[in-house]
Specification:
Layout lengths: L7 H12 L19 E5 L3 H13 L8 E5 H11 L5 H20 L13 H11 L11 H16 L1 H6 L2 H10 L2 H22 L1 H8 L11 H9 L8 H20 L6 H5 L4 E6 L7 H15 L5 E7 L10 E2 L6 H11 L10 E5 L11 H12 L12 H32 L13 E3 L5 E4 L11 H23 L5 E8 L12 H20 L8 E8 L7 H14 L3 E6 L5 H13 L3 E3 L14 E3 L4 H17 L7 E7 L5 H16 L3 E7 L14 H6 L7 E4 L3 H14 L6 E4 L4 H4 L2 H4 L7 E5 L12 H9 L7 H4 L4 H22 L7 H8 L8 E3 L2 E3 L15 E6 L6 E6 L18
Parallel strand pairs: 1-4, 1-6, 2-3, 3-4, 5-6, 9-10, 9-11, 11-12, 12-13, 14-15, 14-16, 16-17, 17-18
Antiparallel strand pairs: 7-8, 8-10, 18-21, 19-20, 21-22
Organism: Phytohabitans maris
Protein name: Leucine-binding protein domain-containing protein
């Protein structure tokens, strides 16, 4: 029959209180009515039965059992004495300590505790491994350190699955036949050696071993020296008591780490009960008392909390404790122990940690209180420990991991999507790209904005990319010059093009004239950077694209406004292609920003009326119409026309300011010369406006066959191609006399395009003197030969449209204005307002003798158009080089043709 101890229910209640881990706090003083864990000493004569009942209660605790191991100290000491008779009594006690700790570590790290509760004894495992390496007391030989490190490396490899697999015999044989010798050597020898050296510095057990207080190292703090002392401690005459304390401290430190609560250490929060070590039959004879005293001395010396309940048992005859608590005392044993411990303050000796408790004898079978005591004992023996926090459970961990992964995935997806959306809005460029912030992709797919650092606006044209890269490099050179010579101010111009990338379905022909303008601007920039005067500004040019037909010019203007706030060197704008309604909107926005503009090829009469900040280097449509009418009169007088009449063909697109304005000017000019005027509209191929009800360009072209007068075309070059194509197919040997406005210069400058109509000769108005070359006496083309030598073969054709020359002159106009400001007042800030005022002063002796003729604003405040600007007549016939039929205006010292309108200046 099972023995029932008197007041055993109070013993189990005490046991439950000591092993139950608080939910919060742990150290003495952190938990109310708690002051650490004593060494519980059970005094009685029925130790075996008592140990069995305690073990059963701990193993059946709910909701999970308590890690517990019982060790018979008499048996353990007997094994030590028998197996290690070669040791002195002091070292036998150290061996008893080692074996006891190994037994406890094997139990507390056992897999039967579940996946969460086993303790990893890294520090004690290392110390025990070193102590077990050799059992001799002989002096170590010269190879002892190398042998130890080699075996330590093998131990680390065996602990790690990957290296253990690599070093298995079957794997080594396979690797020797399958991988290069260097990979074999690297993977199996060098890398493990390097990792071991690194782990000796970074591994927690290695670092702890050099910091712990026991066995003060005679070696100057190196792991190898200290480890050698552990491999043969008796030869080194180490103190066995200190070796025992080192083992105990390593064992307890591993427990402390396992129980250390951190938010990210779920397992530590799931440990709701302390480990229990029951040392049965402790006595002086079996060295059990010395072992227990070593435990409490380590606790006193480290001052750390140990998550371990040490229980001992001894007989009535063997105990030597003065104050023994009884289970039925009014003040419970643990409460009495806590009160005594607190009153001792900081002067706590090892004896203060002992809590001896008298276990009463079992009740006899005839005792009247036997059944009641049995019921109380059974109820108290059903120990309960706190359940782990819900958030620390496996399900919660899986759910938390899933949530974290979902959030992380969502965050990553959001970040990727945000990056993608940002890049999509900024033309596919990353945030690190210096051009990204000033570029935007529009709904049409076009990339518009300003690109100072060479971005090609999505164009795949290699020649355009090279041109923009050249300008970007020159911008960097300008910054370098300014750093080296701060007295030379920086001047920045924005060159706005109508089209640098082509919308889907649109031809890419406009890219050529945009590139030529940029090459002209780059040439002017290069010449300015070559100057060395202290007053000579350094020039930067920022290319910009306003999209097809200047439709996004207002977006570009707002981008420039933002840039201007951070960069006061921006003083003006050049470019502004195509006289359209959107161009007028762009001019208005730039006027609001406060930037002067010098347009390159714009010619509509009304543009200057929209802003006092607007200038241009090309002639107006009214002058173009006057020259066209004068030339038609010349042809009529020479008998080239059958009748004195003109058919003005114009675009039906109401947004095309250029075509409609030139039509009106042509009507007035031709009537002034006595011509009969008829007008014919056509539907352009590319337009955003509704132009239904008008014939197409090919239909209009077919109707020109046999027309006896002159056909004057005021539209765009692409539509003129359609008219010529129809006339070439229809008119045969009787082509009409075609004269076109300056926009057709783009067609005349393209040898492959103009050669498509061999039957139809035509003439067009040009803002240059015709073909040029890199060998001629030209500032522009000699510079282009340096910057863009591959363009020289094309210049005889591309120079016909005048885009490079006009852009070159537009930039030089700004440079002339800033130069005059620096001459007049060297310290004057080069602001946009000052530059605008200086532009109007370019006349008389200060006239700019440019590549496209004289630029003279006449000295009148509101004169924004150059006087007597050069216009030539170029004749195209098949694939032959265009021939100049005459020119009007002032250029160098040359005299205009006799049939031209009279000059208006000087």
């Amino acid at each position: 029959m099972e023995l029932v101890f008197a007041h055993a229910d109070r013993l189990f209640a005490l046991l439950g209180r000591l092993v139950r881990r608080p939910r919060k706090g742990e150290l003495p003083g952190e938990v109310r009515d708690r002051d650490g864990i004593p060494v519980l000493i059970l005094i009685g004569d029925h130790q075996d039965v008592l140990a069995e009942q305690v073990g059963q209660a701990l193993n059946t605790a709910q909701p999970r059992h308590v890690p517990y191991e019982s060790i018979n100290m008499d048996e353990m000491w007997s094994q030590v004495v028998t197996e290690r008779a070669d040791l002195t009594p002091e070292w036998q006690r150290a061996e008893l300590c080692r074996r006891t700790l190994v037994r406890l570590a094997m139990e507390f790290s056992s897999a039967h505790h579940g996946r969460d509760l086993p303790v990893r004894f890294r520090r004690f495992g290392l110390v025990n491994w070193l102590l077990e390496m050799t059992h001799t007391g002989e002096e170590p030989n010269s190879r002892h350190a190398q042998d130890m490190l080699r075996r330590l490396r093998d131990r680390e490899i065996q602990r790690r699955p990957l290296f253990g697999f690599l070093r298995s015999p079957s794997t080594e044989v396979t690797l020797q036949g399958q991988v290069p010798w260097w990979a074999y050597l690297l993977g199996l020898h060098i890398i493990p050696l390097v990792l071991l050296r690194a782990w000796r510095v970074l591994g927690s057990e290695y670092r702890w071993l050099l910091r712990q207080p026991h066995m003060a190292p005679a070696d100057p703090g190196t792991f190898v020296g200290f480890a050698l002392r552990l491999t043969q401690p008796r030869w080194g005459r180490e103190d066995p008591a200190q070796v025992s304390k080192l083992m105990i401290n390593a064992f307890l430190e591993d427990l402390r780490v396992a129980y250390l609560r951190r938010l990210w250490r779920r397992r530590a929060h799931r440990r709701t009960a302390y480990c229990v070590a029951f040392l049965k039959g402790v006595s002086t004879a079996n060295s059990g008392r010395a072992l227990v005293r070593s435990f409490v001395e380590v606790r006193n010396e480290t001052g750390a909390f140990d998550p371990l309940l040490i229980m001992t048992s001894c007989t009535e005859a063997e105990h030597k404790h003065e104050r023994v608590r009884r289970l039925n005392d009014e003040l419970g044993p643990y409460e009495a122990w806590c009160e005594r411990l607190r009153s001792a303050g900081h002067s706590r000796g090892p004896e203060f940690w002992y809590l001896p408790v008298q276990v009463h004898a079992p009740l006899p079978d005839e005792h009247p209180d036997l059944e009641a005591q049995k019921e109380r004992t059974t109820a108290a023996g059903r120990l309960t420990v706190g359940p782990p926090p819900v958030w620390a459970s496996r399900g919660a961990a899986v759910a938390a991991a899933a949530v974290v992964l979902a959030l992380a995935g969502g965050g990553v997806a959001y970040a990727i999507n945000a990056v993608h959306n940002w890049q999509e809005r900024h033309c596919g460029l990353s945030r690190s790209d210096p051009d990204a912030a000033t570029l935007q992709r529009q709904s049409t797919g076009e990339c518009v904005g300003v690109a100072p650092h060479g971005y090609a606006f999505g164009s795949s044209d290699e020649r355009l990319q090279m041109t923009l890269e050249t300008i970007a490099n020159q911008n960097e050179e300008a910054d370098r010059i300014h750093r080296d010579a701060p007295e030379r101010p920086v001047v920045t111009l924005i060159h706005v093009s109508a089209l640098l990338n082509t919308p889907a379905g649109e031809p890419s022909n406009p890219l050529s004239y945009a590139r030529e303008q940029l090459q002209g601007a780059a040439s002017a920039q290069h010449r300015q950077l070559d100057r060395r005067g202290d007053n000579d500004p350094v020039l930067r040019i920022f290319p910009a694209s306003a999209g097809f037909g200047m439709r996004f010019g207002d977006v570009v203007a707002r981008t420039i406004e933002t840039m201007k706030r951070d960069d006061p060197t921006i003083v003006g704008v050049t470019g502004l292609d195509q006289s359209r309604k959107d161009t007028i909107t762009t001019i208005a926005e730039l006027t609001r920003v406060g930037l002067p503009m010098v347009a390159t090829t714009l010619s509509a009469d009304t543009l200057s009326a929209h802003s006092p900040l607007y200038y241009q280097v090309s002639p107006q449509n009214r002058r173009e119409a006057a020259v066209a009418a004068a030339y038609a009169r010349h042809l009529n007088r020479k008998g080239k026309l059958s009748v004195q009449s003109v058919r003005v063909i114009y675009s039906a697109d109401p947004t095309d300011e250029y075509s409609n304005n030139l039509r009106d000017d042509a009507r007035d000019a031709f009537k002034g010369e006595g011509f009969t005027v008829e007008e014919q509209s056509f539907k352009p191929e590319r337009t955003l406006a509704d132009v239904s009800g008008h014939p197409g360009a090919r239909t209009v072209g077919e109707k020109t066959c046999g027309y006896p007068g002159i056909v004057f075309f005021t539209g765009r070059s692409e539509d003129f191609e359609a008219i010529l194509d129809a006339a070439n197919d229809t008119c045969g040997t009787k082509p009409p006399v075609f004269l076109a406005g300056d926009d057709v210069a783009r067609l005349g400058a393209d040898a492959s395009r103009r050669s498509r109509f061999p039957k139809i000769p035509y003439e067009f108005l040009d803002f240059t003197l015709g073909s040029a070359s890199c060998k001629g006496p030209s500032d522009l083309y000699t510079t282009m030969k340096k910057l863009f030598p591959e363009e020289c073969a094309q210049i005889p054709n591309t120079s016909l449209d005048g885009h490079a020359a006009l852009a070159f002159d537009a930039v030089n106009l700004y440079l002339k204005a800033t130069g005059r400001l620096r001459d007049a007042a060297p310290r004057m800030p080069l602001t946009a307002a000052a530059v605008w005022k200086a532009l109007s002063g370019i006349h008389g002796d200060a006239v700019l003798d440019g590549e496209s003729g004289h630029i003279d604003f006449g000295g009148v405040v509101d004169q924004q158009i150059p006087l007597d600007k050069l216009i030539s007549i170029q004749r195209v016939h098949g694939d032959q080089q265009p021939v100049q039929m005459g020119f009007c205006g002032r250029v160098g010292q040359q005299t205009q043709s006799r049939w031209c309108p009279a000059l208006g200046a000087g």
